[in-house]
Amino acid sequence: MNRLSFCALAAATVFVAGCESAPKTAAECANTDWARSGARAVARGEPLASSWSRASRECAVAGFAVNQAAFEQAWGGGFAAYCAPRNALKLGREGANHQNICTPPLDFDFLRAHDMGRVLKTADDDLSRAENAVRKAQAIASDDKKPTADRAGARRDAATAQLARDNAAARISSLEATAAQQGWGLGR
Questions:
Q1: Cα separation of 4 and 63, whole Å?
Q2: Radius of gyration of the chain from Cα atoms?
Q3: Given CB 3.0 to 4.6 Å as the disulfide criterion, which of 15, 70, 76, 122 pairs with 35?
Q4: pLDDT, tens digit (0-9, with 9 covering 90-100), for 111-162
Q5: Considering the entire predicted model, what is its pTM?
Q6: Distance, CA of 127 to CA of 179 (rounded, Å)
Q7: What is the distance between the terminal CA atoms of the chain, rounded to a whole angstrom?
Q8: CA distance 183 to 175
Q9: Which of 35, 20, 41, 112 is nearest to 71 (CA)?
Q10: Alpha carbon of 74 to those of 33, 38, 52, 58, 68: distances in Å?
Q11: What does the alpha-carbon distance between residue 179 and residue 187 come to, in Å, rounded to a whole number?
Q12: SS (H, E, C) the chain
């Protein structure tokens, strides 16, 4: 098997695996920006050793030059940004997991901010559900084709959903204020 065929086969394997940081074609193996690949890996929270191994293995085996120093330097340069509480809050609020790459002392605030982000996500979801419930109940309450009892029940349901919406909005405001006091930003 020639080098081009091997790299194409290896690239197909990497593509199926879903690794965005690894090259996918022979041309990409030859022209990979290893620093950019390292920066992307750490931005996704990938551990250094496993992300480097995955990113470089196929190209190195196929005989293409790999630049581990550039990859590791970029990964290291993005490490502090990934482990920043603001990023952790954002990840948690998006419902994203983390792979525990942050080490002491960075991990303490990272985990606290990530947990707060998770709580914010729950409050965001509660707010969205409550807003949908308000709209549905108001639509039924204002539908003259519905029986009077159904419209009255829908008005009660709308009032209950409005209370849930207000509670969720208040929780979000309180959590965002706490995050701002911690210096973590809003996590959006």
A1: 10
A2: 25
A3: 70
A4: 999 999 999 999 999 999 999 999 999 999 999 999 999 999 999 999 999 9
A5: 0.74
A6: 19
A7: 49
A8: 12
A9: 35
A10: 11, 5, 11, 20, 10
A11: 8
A12: CCHHHHHHHHHHHHHHHCCCCCCCCHHHHHHCCHHHHHHHHHHCCCCHHHHHHHHHHHHHHCCCCCCHHHHHHHHHHHHHHHCCHHHHHHHHHHCCCCCCCCCCCHHHHHHHHHHHHHHHHHHHHHHHHHHHHHHHHHHHHCCCCCCHHHHHHHHHHHHHHHHHHHHHHHHHHHHHHHHHHHCCCCCC
In this structure, what token pair is assigned to residue 34? 């290893």
Q: Which amino acid is at 35?
A: A
Instruction: Note the residue count of the chain.
Output: 188
Instruction: For residue 45, give both structure tokens.
Output: 């929270």
The 10 Å CB-count burial string (b at 16+, else e) for 80-117 is eebbbbbbbbbbbbeeeebeebbeeebbebbbbbbebb
